[in-house]
Amino acid sequence: MHKRIAVIILLLTLQSLVLTGCWSRIEINDRLLVVAMFLDELEDDKVLLTLGYAKPNQIASGAGGESSGASMPYATVQGEGRNISEAYRNIQTNISREIFWGQVKIIVMGEQYARTGVQPLLDFVNRKSAIPLKTYILVAKEAAEAISMFPTQIEKFPSEIFRELVARKKIITGSVKHFMIAQEYGRGMIVSYLSPNPDKSQGNQIRVLGAALFQDNRMVDTIDIYKTRGAMWLRGNIKDAIITFPSPSDGELISLLIINAKSKISLSRKDEKFVYTFKLEIESIVDSSNSSIEMADPDTMRHLEKILDGEVESRIMQAFDASIKAGSDAFQLGSHIAWNYPEEWKAVKEDWSHMYKEQVRLEVETKAVIRLLGTQKK
Q1: Among 58, 152, 370, 373, which is most exposed with the fewest C-beta within 10 angstroms?
Q2: How far apart are CA 286 and CA 243, in angstroms?
Q3: Nearest-5° Cα angle at 110, 160 to 48
Q4: Measured in whole angstroms, how far is the alpha carbon of residue 2 from the centre of its chain?
Q5: CA distance 1 to 24
């Protein structure tokens, strides 16, 4: 009898534990779904945190467009603090819902904040495990707040514009994960650099200016669009590209569309320098031509392919040279030393910012093929 009673008590205890549920659960209706973070450095050494969020009462029915802010399904809220955590808590204190970080798609830093240093941001993200590692990071010229809120014509949320540009490889890719990997290998990084568009006549709300270079968690320089395209080749971010150049016969423009690219990078030691060989295979088609050049001629085709080789190599080398000048291992070339020469990496790792400028060389080898000619002119 006593044994039976003991079993019954045990079963009742287990049942009560099962039925208690998750005591820390927060209902979805009590959450504020943050989709974008914008960070700015203020004059008094404080941080301005702007959070873009989906409006709970309009997310299902709202749509983008040149409509008034009241009808948009997206809004922002701001807070100041001595660090990101304090700014976030000041926001949380004044809103009725619990901030949820799991839907963050982009983080945009103002230029001053990026030049001061991104280590506080990386520390905050690392401690907020809900923020996805694939969250994209970008830099805004001047203030990030300026591009946190603008009317959209296609996407529902402004943050989706940035996310789609990066995801579709229209601009250079940099994410939380990339920054964290860079901490171990060279401490250099490259991300997209953009600004609000002062000319709204064409409906474009932002302008991509190029890319921002980082070293040791600080923004150290910027490069223009032309060099950024070369950087995208080095980073393997190119999905497609248009290369335009004058025809060798009459000077009229020819545009070639890159449809496929395969790259491989190798490392060797020459003359006490780390020499990287970047091999690139390119397939392209003729996208447009105003020239009367005879493309059906095999010698002409080989000539055009060599021109294409030279154009791509020039962009890549200009991007690399800019990173050398800035002392930014933006392409994490140090990781190849860590993999291939681990003992040497231990010796140069701490002083890699200086060593990168002095002891790294890049050699580019491209092989371009034009697959389709399209309609030809005589």
Answers
A1: 373
A2: 10
A3: 95
A4: 67
A5: 39
User: What does the block give as tokens for 372?
Assistant: 């389709």
Sorted by sequence, the CB contacts under 8 Å of residue 121 that are 6+ apart come out as: 39, 84, 107, 109
Residue that has been written with the tokens 């926001």 in this structure:
91
SS3 218: strand
Instruction: Specify the pTM.
Output: 0.83
Q: Which of 90-104, 144-158, 298-312 has the lowest mean pLDDT?
A: 144-158
DSSP E strands, the chain: 31-41, 47-54, 74-81, 98-100, 106-110, 136-140, 188-196, 206-215, 218-223, 241-246, 253-270, 273-289, 360-372
Q: How far is CA 239 from the centre of its chain?
A: 14
Instruction: Give the CA angle between residues 324, 327, 332 to the nearest 5°.
Output: 80
Phi, psi of 45 (to 5 degrees): 60, 25
CB 234 within 8 A of CB 331: yes
Q: Where are the chain's structural domains?
A: 26-223, 232-378
**How far apart are the C-alpha atoms of 124 and 85, rounded to whole Å?**
7
Amino acid at 1: M
pLDDT in tens, 268-305: 998 889 999 999 999 999 888 888 888 888 888 899 99
Sign of CA dihedral 177, 180, 184, 186: positive
Cα separations in angstroms, 8 against 13, 17, 61, 166, 171: 9, 14, 53, 60, 65
> CATH fold of 232-378, please?
GMP Synthetase; Chain A, domain 3 (3.30.300)
